[in-house]
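Every protein is a chain of amino acids, and every chain bends into a shape of its own. The fold becomes a row of whole numbers, each drawn from a learned catalogue of backbone shapes. The protein below has been through that process, and both of its lines are reproduced in full.
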Amino acid sequence: MDTSELRQMVESITVNNLENQDVEVINHSPLRMIGKGRQGAVFHYTDDVCVKVFGNEEDCEREYEALSMGQHTGLFPRVYDHGPLFIVMETIKGIDLREYLQSHPLTEELSAKLIEMLIIFKEIGYERIDHHKRQIYLQADGSLRVIDVARTIWRDRVYPYPRKLLTSLGETHKETFLSHVKAFSPELLEEWSYYMRMEELAREIYPLLLESGKTKKVVKDLSSRLLTKDEKENANNLVNLMHKVFKEEWVKTMLARGENPDVVMQKIDEHWDALEQKQQQQPVVEEPNTRQQKIDFTDIQRIINGFNKTDKKEKDDKKSKIDKKKFEKASPAEKSKMLRQELTSILMQKIMDNTKKDKK
């Protein structure tokens, strides 16, 4: 495809990134803008071809790489040309999932296609196997096409289940989709449910930390102790999930206090980014695969006593009920279950205690 004429037109378009807003577009070309977002704006070229112009080169490079990774799947727009600040690609037609579900039910067939989409995301190497429903298009033949894939790679924080997709579906369609997942693969639903429950626990921890005046550093430390799995990858996933929850809940709190949410979000991002850079600078010591990772039993007691300072008698009442010898002999799966039950019990009791104090 000859794109020389289109390249000249793109030179007459300027796209500027704005903080927490859609881009600003200055268009002196004959191309008609058909949409814009936080990263760039899309312009009509022909009925089958469009060009996306970006505000910065990193976003453009990120999206081009993500699209290139999936060209063989047929799930993403075909790429015809690209430059430092633009990508010429196939125009995706059809109806987006957000609009479709307003007048149609979420069937098992459609749920199966969504699961297949997530599988493709994982197989081609996307770091975030997730997508918002408005970026998923249903075709006339029943297949799915996906746009705006830049955020699927180079992710600082990756969540271990399709959080954005489930949230965007809304409660009714979310429950329907999860019921279909259960029918297709109970094991997959069990894994997703585990992480969703961890997110709920993270939300329950937030007001306790706010009440007791804990710092963000302590929030990160406590979130890591929610972990109930041995694998390093899952540990990172859960910490990332806590970051996301804390950011959302903190913004809500600052809004209620009349603060500027954009300033709050920026400060949170700066804090977590600084922490991540510090962690990346620390040397990583690889352990042999044959060596089983051990869980420090004393962490359980630290979790119990770590939320708020209590007197000696109250600490004694809250000692772990897990048998230490039994725990040390247990398999990783059994340890996971024991820790999950213990932490859930502790957090629920703490919440009930706080509720009783408020009533008094």
Observations:
- The longest helix spans residues 332-359.
- The longest strand covers residues 21-27.
- Confidence is low (pLDDT under 50) at residues 284-318.
